[in-house]
Amino acid sequence: MAKAVEKAVNAILKANAAIDAVVSNRIHHDHLPQNQILPALTYGLVDDVRPITHDIKIGPGRARIQVTAHAGDYPTANDLAEKVADLDGTSGTFATIIVQLMRYETMVKFYSDDPVVKEFFIPVDFFVHYGT
């Protein structure tokens, strides 16, 4: 089950016109469905830190979210990953969650050399500061 911050990231991805032009509704939580048409995106929570004292939340959360661009060729995967990285600085309310700041962190480029599963995938990591 997706955490609230993941739902906010899903809404951010779906609301971006440049990303929508490439993947349409092919945005998935955690993994691609079998036989997914590419290009597509996956997103998921890497970790989530909420400051607490004596079991009481005392500030906004900071989640590391990974959004991965998947494509059948490098130029498409790279272009999609760059569009995702351009979300750096995003803030606002998405899926009822207050996103104070979505900050780009890293991007790593991979590919599958399996001739049957020719796929390029580029994970893009963000820190998402969210909540009150």
Overview of this protein structure:
The protein has 132 residues and is α+β, with helices and mostly antiparallel strands. It has a single domain, classed as STM4215-like (2-Layer Sandwich). It is 23% helix and 43% strand. It has three helices and nine strands, in the order ααβββββαββββ. It has helices at 4-15, 17-23, 74-85; strands spanning 27-29, 40-49, 52-53, 56-57, 61-71, 90-94, 97-107, 110-111, 120-130. The strands form two sheets. Strands 1, 2, 5, 6, 7, 8 and 9 form a seven-stranded mixed β-sheet that branches. The longest helix has 12 residues, at 4-15.
Oligomeric state: single chain
Total separate domains: 1
Q: Could you say what the CATH topology is called? A: STM4215-like
The end-to-end distance, rounded to whole angstroms, is 22 Å
* Name of the CATH superfamily: Phage tail protein-like
- What amount of the residues lies in strands? 35-45%
The H-and-E topology, N to C, reads as: HHEEEEEHEEEE
Q: How does the helix and strand content classify structurally? A: alpha+beta
What is the helix fraction of residues, given as a range? Answer: 10-25%
* Count of alpha and pi helical runs: 3
Rounded Rg: 15 Å
- Quote the average pLDDT: 90
Architecture (CATH level 2) name = 2-Layer Sandwich
Low-confidence stretches: none
CATH top level is Alpha Beta
Shape: elongated
Keywords for this entry:
9 strands, 7-stranded mixed sheet, STM4215-like, two-stranded antiparallel ribbon
Quick structural overview:
The chain is α+β, with helices and mostly antiparallel strands and 132 residues long. The chain is built from 3 helices and 9 strands; from the N terminus they run H-H-E-E-E-E-E-H-E-E-E-E.
